[in-house]
Amino acid sequence: MRIGAVADDITGATDLCLMLTREGLRTVQVMGVPQPGSRLPDADAVVIALKSRSIPAADAVEMSCAAARALQAAGAEQLLFKYCSTFDSTDAGNIGPVAAALMDLTGCPLTIACPSFPAAGRTTYKGHLFVGDLLLSDSPLKDHPLNPMRDSNLVRVLQRQTALPVGLVQIGTIRQGVDALRAEFAARQAAGDRILIVDTLSDDDLRVIGAACENMPLVTGGSGIGLGLAANVIRSGKVRPQPVARRMKAPAGRPVVLAGSCSAATLGQIEAARSAGLPLLALDPGALADGRLTPAEIAAWAIAQPGTRPPVIYSSAPPDILRAVQDRLGQHKAGALLETTLAETARLLRDAGFSRFLIAGGETSGAVVAALGVTMLYIGPEIAPGVPWTRSAAGPDLALALKSGNFGGPDFFLRAWDLLENHDV
């Protein structure tokens, strides 16, 4: 195994898997910390998907270190801690505490923090994270329901999460090339820095950063940095690049969209589906809490829809409506209720012959995949930057698209299905 990765949510893991696969690595996604004595798959890269982004920091550290030790035991030559390209976290963590613990585990004296993903509009300049043309603090992510991001200065954000000294390497140094960047890393380490935020504006910058990190035991960042790390492996000649899939064979069965994300991108995708005439069902949290609406009734509605066009079941809502729900039920109770409902609905639909699931939202995806009994994924074709189709490699035979709430264009729910073969041949 050349690269072993620990991802703090399931859609982020899939996003990273896509990046590594696009660069030619045989990549497999594993759900959750492997059981003691279990064997990880034989692949160039293995990404372990956790649900650790929004849990208490101590729990995230324990879970992440357990996953990292499993990857080390399987022979991983380099570890990557993958988190959101919007640095989705609170002042208490979990990025800083987990990164520090993994540095201790690997004996890594200096690492980087590179959340940038230029293909999806996430860039870093002078240490400030941008979403498209907006500072993170001015973007819709400032109203994230779990981790509102109201400070775009990543040095400041990360320094609030860790006692390790945090520094910055600006774009001018990166544009000087790999040797200059390596020299800067050495100088910063000698000066006492432990974690360096790195500016990144393009994929070329990611390749330079990745090359400079070739011998770093631990790298941290978003999926974009996987591009540079995978390029190192290919350049070394240690693996033979694999062809990139353009379409994917999928099991026969009906399609469905389950959306739990409240991001602006997902809300736009729901509206595009409405305009295209897809059947839509909005979940009323009050009715769910009172027992007036059940997963069985939701599944029955989906089963009753005519034709092969995917029904869309969603709990997504604009920030003002979401806040009202959270005020009534409590933030965590509201989120857990909706996740549990969509997960149980997915299980019922699977049993009724649905085999193609498009799921929007990281927390939702984690809950749904667990309910479906899927424990391992093969990576298929790219639907949009950061989102591939996948097919289960363990558990029931299903096609799954696990979408971060912020990813994809308005027509994502409409065109994703074109990349699936109608049946096995």
What does this structure look like?
- With 425 residues, this protein is of the alpha/beta class.
- It folds into two domains: 3-236, Putative sugar-binding, N-terminal domain (Rossmann fold); 254-419, Four-carbon acid sugar kinase, nucleotide binding domain (Molybdenum Cofactor Biosythetic Enzyme, Chain A, 3-Layer(aba) Sandwich), CATH 3.40.980.20.
- Helices cover 38% and strands 20% of the residues.
- The protein has 15 helices and 18 strands.
- The strands form two sheets. The protein has a 15-stranded mixed beta sheet, sandwiched between helices.
- The relative contact order is 0.15.
List the topology elements.
Elements: E1 3-7, H1 10-22, E2 27-31, E3 45-49, H2 57-73, E4 78-82, H3 95-106, E5 111-114, E6 122-125, E7 128-131, E8 134-135, H4 154-159, E9 166-169, H5 171-174, H6 178-190, E10 195-198, H7 203-212, E11 218-221, H8 225-236, E12 254-259, H9 264-275, E13 280-282, H10 285-290, H11 295-304, E14 312-314, H12 319-329, H13 331-351, E15 354-360, H14 362-372, E16 376-384, E17 387-394, E18 399-403, H15 412-415
Parallel strand pairs: 1-3, 1-4, 2-3, 4-11, 5-10, 5-11, 9-10, 12-14, 12-15, 13-14, 15-18
Antiparallel strand pairs: 2-16, 6-7, 7-8, 16-17, 17-18
Helix pairs in contact: 1-8, 2-3, 6-7, 7-8, 11-13, 12-13, 13-14
